[in-house]
Design goal:
Length: 344
Amino acid sequence: MTAPLPKLHNAAWPGLVGKEPGTDNPPIDLETMLDHTAKAEVNGQKFDGIDLFLFDPHVSIDADRGELEKLAESIGYRNLVVGSVVAPVWEPTGGGSAMDPGEGRKKFLTQIRKACRIAKELREIGIRRYGVVRIDSATPPADWAEHPDAGTRAIAETFREAAKIAEDHGERLAAEGEICWAGMHSWREMIKLLEEVDMPKTVGFQADMAHTLLYLMGWNAPDDALLPRDFDWSDTATLDAAYAEMTDALRPWTIDFHVAQNDATVHGTGSHDKTGRHCLPNDPNGKLEIAKRAGAWLDGAADRGIKHICWDGCMFPNDVMAKEETWNSILEAMIAVRDAHGWE
C-alpha cells in the first residue's frame, strides 16, 4: 500500500523557464500545465498538487485576493492543491541581486514580501496546506568570485532580512542549490551560506536531484568536486560514497525536495544560464537511479516538515511536454520514490 506522504506534485514553471515568445518553444500557459498535471494517471494514482512560479503569465506577483481566489478555484476544480511557490527575485522579473546591499537587496526583499503575502493568502483561501517559498541569490557566481567571503556575508544578510519577512507571514524559505547562483553553486559554499544565515527554523535548503548531481562534479566550483569530470558512472561504489558525503552534509538543511533526472551535463535555453540538464526519468543517458538517490535526501524528511515532493523538468521542448506519456512516466517515477521512502 502506498504511503500517504509525501504528496506528489508537478511544477508549473517548466512552462516558463527557458521559453521565449516567437520561438519554437514559447511559454506554456498555466491552464495547460494544470491540465497536463491533472490528466496524468498511473495505476489509479494521480498527482496531488502543483508548485507555482509567482510571475506572469502564470501568477502575477501583484495578484489581488480576487485573482487568487479564481486561481484556487481553477486548481481545486482539477482536484489539485498548491505546495511551494517560487519568488521572482531575479532582476528581469522585478527583483535584484541578494549580494547587492543597496538597490538590489531592496528589490529582492520587495519580491519576498509580495511572494510571502500570496503564499499566506493561498493558505487562508484553503488551496495551500504545506510547502515553502523558494529563493536563490539572484547573482551570477562570477560576481561572487571577486570577493567570496564578503559576497557570502552580503547574501546571508539579505536572506536574514527575507527570513524576518517570511516569519511575519508564517512561511519558510528554501534556498535552491543550483550552480548558476552565487554562494549556492557549490555544496560546500551552500552550507557556508546557510550557516552564515543561521536561521535554520526559517531558512533551509531546496534540493533538486538534477542540480545537486552537478555539485559532485564541481561545475562552477572545481575545488569542491567529489567526482572527476570524466567519471566512470559504472563505478557505483565511488558514486555511492560521493553522494553520501554530499547528502549527509546538506540533508539536515533540506526542507523542500525536487525529484529529477540528469545526464551529468549542463544546459540552458532562453535567458536561463547553464545549469543542471533535466532529463525525462527514463532517459537512457540519465545518471541517477531516481528512487535510490531520492532516499538519501528524504531520510528524516517528516521531521524537517516536508509533506510533499515535486517533479522538476525545465527546458524540455514543448512537443515533449505536450505528450501524455511524458507526464505519466514522470508520475510513475514519483510514485516509485514514495513507495520506497514514503511515510504515514
